[in-house]
């Protein structure tokens, strides 16, 4: 695919060219105004915090209307961006797939039908839909039953061939693999909830009726793909210490620890090994409930023949709607599915390599200097991703001209808004400040990595694009420092006021979450 440089991208390059400076804080080509000098001093003071001793910090702020750089510290330094990487993936998906793009899951018959008997195989073909629930598979089974099919003499064939067989990002760490934010990627999968955490199952532990009994273990959705090894104990009283973890390389879930009689159910989200088989198991059970018997076995990974006749179909929500759970909750699985879908649609290859090529070409057309960055996955879970903050600001400035911008902007987390599907990963941050219900930005977290990149409207009504990327710190969290910078930008004004003269703003404490995870990655949700 050849690169196309759109007129809007050329304009964006002119607007944000000054954002490409690096090193220590720099003035713009014009002499800094007194307000800008104060802003420099404020952000410098935040970055001088002892929590960043020995760390790396990159911060860039640009006025999107004029292209003027208001602040630049290490803007060209390549830093690990964590989930800020999703800004590239999501904008490329909106442009190249389109807001109306949907994923299709269908069922086809591979043989003749007569009097309720299908003589041949039944094909369940996945189209990559990360929002498929057990209820959706039940509706597909109902559609099959409604055609009159009662017995299938052949196999149930689970067709996941839209994408390649690589299930995990090449740079992901092995010890993340059981946790739901690192779920395996397949074109045929199941989500257990309406956060659409595809490729995971919710395991529930309820205390037994008496001390000494095993807790009762259930799964959502109910399935036969995973096996429970229940080693936990119900106790008369005491602290709940239930641990739920899938063993690496298989589908045995080990439950250990204790839970007291009368305590609430403990739940955790775990990934499955081979989501294609999980989806096939859920669908086969649904067929049985609707009176459809499959006499053969379940076969994974075989393509649906062109001669197969359609029986049932389910279309996902449009991409414009999927952007909300994707960006608000920083859903890694959605990012990786979209990356593979981009590769499939644009080059016929549902692989990370093809998808990342498509993303790179789009963001290059939008003005990013792709020679200065490296993107290794769609979500930012890889530590080999390296993106300079100035390049994020370039992209953020450029996409304002896209017809889908308003939809995408609304899907970004909104600071201080308690509604989980508005505030997202920022819902507990910056509440009660000038940044609340103002900052629209993507968060990012890995151990020793934090980022916040997006937009803020300043006190004079200007829309500013900013990127804050912090690496190699040793403390548990630096998100309060990001919040202080965002609040300072929301309060920024060229007018001479008492507020304008204030130095470092205060920020409410951010919620405590395990180091290296987005708040939405902690299940049950605690932010």
UniProtKB/TrEMBL annotation:
Signal peptide: 1-22
Source species, domain of life: Bacteria
GO molecular function terms noted in the UniProt entry: serine-type carboxypeptidase activity
Gene Ontology terms: biological process: peptidoglycan metabolic process; proteolysis
Key words of the record: Carboxypeptidase, Hydrolase, Protease, Signal
Keyword Signal: yes
Protein family membership: Belongs to the peptidase S13 family.
Protein name, entry field: D-alanyl-D-alanine carboxypeptidase / D-alanyl-D-alanine-endopeptidase (Penicillin-binding protein 4)
Organism: Micromonospora humi
Lineage: Bacteria, Bacillati, Actinomycetota, Actinomycetes, Micromonosporales
């Amino acid at each position: 695919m050849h690169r196309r440089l759109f007129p809007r991208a050329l304009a964006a390059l002119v607007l944000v060219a000054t954002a490409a400076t690096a090193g220590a804080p720099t003035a713009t080509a014009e002499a800094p105004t007194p307000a800008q000098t104060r802003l420099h001093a404020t952000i410098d003071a935040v970055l001088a915090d002892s929590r960043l001793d020995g760390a790396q910090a990159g911060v860039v702020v640009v006025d999107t209307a004029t292209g003027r750089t208001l602040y630049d510290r290490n803007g060209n330094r390549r830093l690990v961006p964590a989930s800020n990487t999703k800004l590239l993936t999501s904008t490329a998906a909106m442009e190249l797939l389109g807001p109306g793009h949907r994923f299709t899951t269908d069922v086809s018959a591979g043989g003749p039908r007569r009097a309720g008997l299908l003589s041949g195989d039944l094909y369940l073909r996945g189209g990559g839909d990360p929002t498929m629930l057990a209820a959706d598979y039940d509706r597909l089974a109902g559609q099959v039953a409604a055609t009159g099919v009662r017995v299938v003499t052949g196999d149930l064939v689970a067709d996941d061939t839209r994408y390649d067989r690589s299930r995990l990002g090449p740079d992901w760490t092995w010890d993340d693999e059981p946790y739901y934010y690192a779920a395996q990627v397949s074109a045929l999968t199941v989500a257990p909830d309406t956060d659409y955490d595809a490729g995971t199952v919710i395991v529930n532990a309820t205390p037994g009726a008496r001390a000494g009994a095993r807790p009762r273990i259930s799964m959502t959705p109910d399935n036969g793909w995973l096996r429970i090894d229940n080693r936990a104990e119900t106790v008369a009283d005491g602290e709940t210490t239930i641990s739920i973890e899938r063993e690496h390389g298989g589908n045995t879930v080990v439950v250990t620890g204790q839970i007291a009689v009368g305590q609430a159910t403990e739940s955790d989200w775990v990934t499955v090994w081979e989501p294609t088989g999980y989806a096939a198991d859920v669908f086969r059970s649904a067929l049985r409930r609707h009176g459809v018997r499959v006499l053969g076995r379940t076969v994974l990974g075989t393509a649906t023949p062109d001669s197969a006749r359609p029986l049932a179909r389910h279309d996902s929500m449009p991409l414009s709607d999927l952007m909300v759970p994707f960006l608000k909750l920083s859903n890694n699985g959605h990012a990786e599915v979209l990356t593979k879908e981009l590769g499939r649609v644009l080059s016929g290859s549902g692989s990370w390599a093809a998808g990342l090529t498509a993303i790179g070409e789009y963001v290059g057309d939008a003005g990013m200097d792709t020679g200065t960055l490296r993107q290794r996955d769609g979500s930012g879970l890889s530590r080999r991703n390296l993106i300079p903050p100035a390049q994020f600001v370039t992209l953020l400035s450029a996409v304002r001209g896209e017809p889908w911008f308003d939809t995408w902007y609304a899907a970004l987390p909104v600071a201080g808004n308690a509604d989980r599907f508005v505030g997202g990963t920022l819902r507990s941050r910056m509440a009660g400040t000038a940044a609340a219900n103002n900052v629209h930005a993507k968060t990012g977290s890995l151990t020793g990595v934090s980022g916040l990149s997006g937009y803020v409207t300043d006190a004079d009504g200007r829309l500013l694009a900013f990127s804050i990327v912090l690496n190699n710190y040793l403390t548990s969290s630096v998100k309060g420092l990001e919040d202080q910078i965002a609040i300072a930008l929301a309060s920024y004004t060229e007018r001479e006021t008492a507020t304008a003269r204030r130095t470092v703003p205060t920020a409410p404490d951010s919620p405590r979450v395990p180091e290296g995870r987005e708040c939405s990655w902690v299940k049950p949700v605690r932010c």
